[in-house]
From TrEMBL:
Family as reported in the entry's similarity comment: Belongs to the glycosyltransferase 47 family.
Residues annotated as domain Exostosin GT47: 137-473
Bias (Basic and acidic residues) ranges: 39-52, 83-109
Protein name: Xyloglucan galactosyltransferase KATAMARI1-like protein
MF terms in GO: glycosyltransferase activity
Pfam families referenced in this protein's UniProt entry, alphabetically: Exostosin_GT47
Organism of provenance: Pyrus ussuriensis x Pyrus communis
Record-level GO cellular component terms: Golgi membrane
Length: 570
């Protein structure tokens, strides 16, 4: 996955991205026979050879180099590759059984055997999909476009071709949650844990949407319209060595399909929304040079009218919003969440702070080296799980989660881009996140995280770390014990808001990341609809380059964080 430069995509919001990539061999086109009633899924590749150099050109002439994220093989602390899922190492299996969908889902009985899920359990949406007006769904109805299968389920039917290095068919199972994780070391709870790939959010979100309470088949009743295009999975096949025409083909086709539908003309797409399961910079190619990275999906006129959801948004653009990366925990019952929260409250934490990640020697302004050095200098007060390009403990979720559960604070510096999945893994473990850039979380997940970041996290400016002005150990030790206790409690309370529940069931009293994202979309669309009724252009009348400020604070006045979002700075 390609990212913004760390502290600097930090730089100017108007950037060109040039990429130098060695050609890769084409993926195999294995065909997988799937059930007709499908819930698509597939993923993005990551392998060590897939790294490349990205050059960011800002409009004022600045040039920044960075190294992309490993996009299909090994990622930091297991987000991409699990040893037992490597194609070369995995045991032969029947591909026909690898991708399961709501109608096909099985539930495990207490003795470990699988038993059929009741039909009524998986099809509750049919009862609530009445075309008659329902008071409980007022302002909440969502219509799902029945887009051509080439944009989603057909991609999954060829799951064997999605990666030459990783078994994507297995990772795409269980509504996109992946295979269940064993709990031999008692790091997880007994149910709800999966080897979830971070780039399968599009599938998980779509699977959850199929169980949404207020779906309607009548688009005239809908408050918002969902487009289930798997943009990230589509483009992942072509990010390396392909022409821009190939990379853009899916985006241009879906845009054309949408604007020709009657639903589009109602608000010219302003009531439409889509999930792109990669970071925004994979969809913001500024020029039409083959050397440029990614697609131009989010720069298309149609996309600019829509609300675009991604695992990382652009602080300098107004039409995309970040929603949490998928974690490994996907509970099917409220009680599973409550039990996990209580366990994290009682967890003994003997490590002051920890870091799971690797250095970024090719990124000039990266603070990874300084953080690793400070962690080593702190000796027993800090634990380091250093990620390399080879298989090690950093790439297995059990070791990462175990370390986070034993830590009071978890360091979350920018890497190849401003955000990381590790942020949500640490929250899930009840570990207080320590950020070094407000663009890593505060201006990203505005619907899911508290506006008052001091309640649940610590911010240490990256500039001060780079210049050697701050000791992480000293800073964290100065926080009063009572304050630490209160912060941890806030982190534990956040757990339901940053996880995606199992799409095969429903949480009864808790809103998860999906629920909160849908509410955010509905509120935004309603604001736009109200403006259109009143003849206004938009309520979001501000320069796009200060979108981060308006979305978080509701103002574009001068702010102490402005230096973080200006030109690259050390």
């Amino acid at each position: 996955m390609v990212g913004k430069s760390l502290i600097a995509v930090l730089g100017n919001h108007n950037i060109d991205i040039s990429v130098t990539v060695a050609n890769e061999s084409e993926n195999s086109g294995d065909s997988v026979s799937l059930p007709e009633e499908t819930n698509e899924s597939r993923n993005t590749k990551t392998r060590d050879e897939g790294h490349m150099n990205i050059v960011f050109h800002d409009r004022s002439g600045g040039v920044f180099n960075l190294r992309t994220k490993d996009v299909f093989g090994i990622e930091e602390h297991g987000i991409e590759k699990f040893g037992h899922l490597s194609k070369k190492e995995s045991e032969p299996h029947d591909r026909n059984d690898q991708v399961r969908y709501p109608r096909e889902n099985k539930a495990e009985s207490e003795n470990g055997d699988e038993e059929d899920e009741p039909e009524e359990h998986l099809d509750k949406r049919d009862e609530s999909d009445s075309e008659s007006f329902s008071e409980s769904c007022t302002g909440k109805y969502i219509y799902v476009h029945d887009i051509p299968s080439k944009f989603n389920k057909d991609l999954l039917k060829k799951c064997g071709s999605l990666s030459n290095w990783t078994d994507m068919c297995e990772l795409a199972s269980n509504f996109g949650l992946g295979p269940r994780l064993s709990n031999l070391e008692k790091v997880y709870s007994n149910t709800g844990w999966f080897a979830t790939n971070q780039f399968l959010l599009e599938v998980i979100f779509h699977s959850r949407m199929k169980q949404y309470n207020c779906l309607t088949k009548n688009s005239s009743l809908a408050s918002a319209i969902f487009v289930p295009y798997y943009a990230g999975l589509d483009v992942a096949r072509y990010l390396w060595g392909s022409s821009i025409s190939t990379r853009d083909s899916g985006s241009l086709e879906i845009a054309k399909w949408l604007r020709e539908k009657p639903e589009w003309k109602k608000m010219w797409g302003r009531d439409h929304f889509m999930v792109a399961g990669r970071i925004t910079w994979d969809f913001r190619r500024w020029t039409d040079k083959d050397s440029e990275w990614g697609t131009k999906l989010m720069l298309l006129p149609e996309s600019k009218n829509m609300t675009m959801l991604a695992i990382e948004s652009s602080p300098w653009n107004s039409n995309d919003f970040a929603i949490p990366y998928p974690t490994y925990f996907h509970p099917s019952k409220d009680n599973e969440v409550f039990q996990w929260q209580n366990r994290m409250r009682r967890q003994k934490r003997r490590i002051l702070f920890s870091f799971a990640g690797g250095p970024r020697p090719n990124l000039q302004n990266s603070i990874r080296n300084e953080i690793i050095d400070q962690c080593r200098a702190a000796r027993r007060k800090c634990k380091l799980l250093e990620c390399t390009t080879g298989p090690d403990k950093c790439h297995k979720p059990v070791f990462v989660m175990k370390m986070f559960q034993g830590s009071v604070f978890c360091l979350q510096p920018p890497g190849d881009s401003l955000t990381r999945r590790s942020i949500f893994d640490s929250i899930l473990a009840g570990c207080i996140p320590v950020f070094f850039h407000p663009g890593s979380a505060y201006v990203q997940y505005v619907w899911h995280l508290p506006k008052d970041y001091t309640k649940y996290s610590v911010l240490i400016p990256a500039f001060d770390i780079k210049n050697g002005k701050v000791s992480i150990e000293t800073t964290l030790q100065k926080i009063p014990r009572q304050k630490v206790y209160e912060m941890r409690e806030e982190v534990v309370k956040l757990i339901p808001r940053v996880i995606y529940a199992d799409p095969g069931s429903r949480l009864e009293t808790l809103d998860d990341a999906f629920d909160i994202a849908v509410k955010g979309v509905l509120e935004r669309v309603e604001t736009i609809r109200k403006d259109m009724r009143e003849g206004k252009n938009t309520s979001f009348d501000y320069a796009e380059k200060v979108s981060w400020k308006y979305n978080l604070f509701g103002t574009v006045e001068e702010h102490e964080w402005d230096p973080f979002f200006e030109r690259q700075r050390v």
